Amino acid sequence: MPHRSPSVKALGFFYSLDFPKLISFQKTICIIARLYEGKIFGGKGMKSAIITGASRGIGKAVAYCLASMGYRVALVAKNEALLKQVAADLKEKHPSSDPIPCAVDVTSEESISSLFSKILDELQQIDILVNAAGILIPKTGSITNKELRSMVETNLYGSIYSIQAVLPKMKAQKSGYIFNVASRAGKTGISSLGGYCASKFGMVGYSESLALELAEFGIKVTSLCPGWVDTDMAKQNTSTPSEEMISPSDITKTIQFLLGLSHNCLIKEVVIDCRRTLIAAGKSSVKKT
Ligand SMILES: NC(=O)c1ccc[n+]([C@@H]2O[C@H](COP(=O)([O-])OP(=O)(O)OC[C@H]3O[C@@H](n4cnc5c(N)ncnc54)[C@H](OP(=O)(O)O)[C@@H]3O)[C@@H](O)[C@H]2O)c1
């Protein structure tokens, strides 16, 4: 056997390689790596959502829903310990959601603005904002200025601050979806919920105006107006039994439905009644014939 130098051996090996096969193998590896980057390591270019009020109730249910749909999620609420619990559980159940817990009070414009800019740097893109942070103080005529202000600042201003913090990015992307969790109390007056109604009517009005303004940017805005939903808030404020309330999963299914609609279809608001409330309202004083 003739002696060959190492460089001649290397040249021989080089010529023996099947390049077309190698290149297609390399391409396949690249595609798999990119898919894994998005799905498993929460990589850049992944769909992402910010959810306020994500530590409990409706916001928490929405966070689980979006995480299960493959979104990376940023979770906003005041209670840091609770947020971290939710984030840890989400990470275990849906690793690709790579949750970012963000403890902040939505009534602070400066905090929201600086927090959201950090979140947006981290997420790179923002597909969905869900405004679900909210409070309810059940008073109308006897409401104090302080109580009214705290409801309006949380439910209305808090949502608007959050919207304003994501808008420049969504406009630049020419895409995005903003869900405002308003209430049935944003559509009709309710005795003893006057202050809450004021904050929610404001939210519905702002939301509809925003839907009109942002349509040309490819950004959708929908306000969700449910009756009693089975959460801490409802348990503290109604005698309606849990099993007769709307379920948080009804809200997440509504959001999933809305997300599935085409680019050209926009639903500005969805009113979701609690069956028990409708039965009561249907008992009118008109004599049945
Ligand atoms: N449950 C219902 O029957 C019902 C019906 C219609 C509409 N809604 C609306 O749906 C939204 C969610 O309500 P829910 O029933 O899920 O209430 P919930 O169980 O009481 O949860 C409220 C969420 O909002 C957060 N939050 C409250 N104030 C905040 C603030 N200043 N800054 C940041 N986060 C704040 C809370 O977190 P922290 O406690 O950590 O702050 C919590 O995560 C509210 O806007 C509510 O008005 C509820």
Structure description:
The protein is of the alpha/beta class. The chain folds into 2 domains: 1-39; 44-280, 3-Layer(aba) Sandwich (Rossmann fold), CATH 3.40.50.720. Helices cover 52% and strands 13% of the residues. It has 10 helices and 7 strands. It has helices at 6-16, 19-39, 57-68, 80-93, 109-123, 145-173, 194-214, 232-237, 248-259, 275-282, and strands at residues 48-52, 72-77, 100-103, 128-131, 176-181, 219-226, 269-272. Strands 3-2-1-4-5-6-7 form a 7-stranded parallel beta sheet, sandwiched between helices. Helix 3 packs across helix 9 and helix 6 runs parallel beside helix 7 (194-214). The longest helix is centred in the middle third of the chain and has 29 residues, at 145-173. The chain starts with 5 loop residues before the first helix and ends in a 7-residue tail after the last helix. The relative contact order is 0.10. NADP nicotinamide-adenine-dinucleotide phosphate is lined by residues 52-53, 55-59, 77-79, 82, 105-107, 132-136, 154-155, 158, 181, 183, 226, 228-229, 231-234. Residues 52-53, 55-59, 77-79, 82, 105-107, 132-136, 154-155, 158, 181, 183, 226, 228-229, 231-234 line the site of NADP nicotinamide-adenine-dinucleotide phosphate.
Keywords:
289 residues, alpha/beta, Rossmann fold, 2 domains, seven-stranded parallel β-sheet, 10 helices, 7 strands, 13% strand, binds NADP nicotinamide-adenine-dinucleotide phosphate
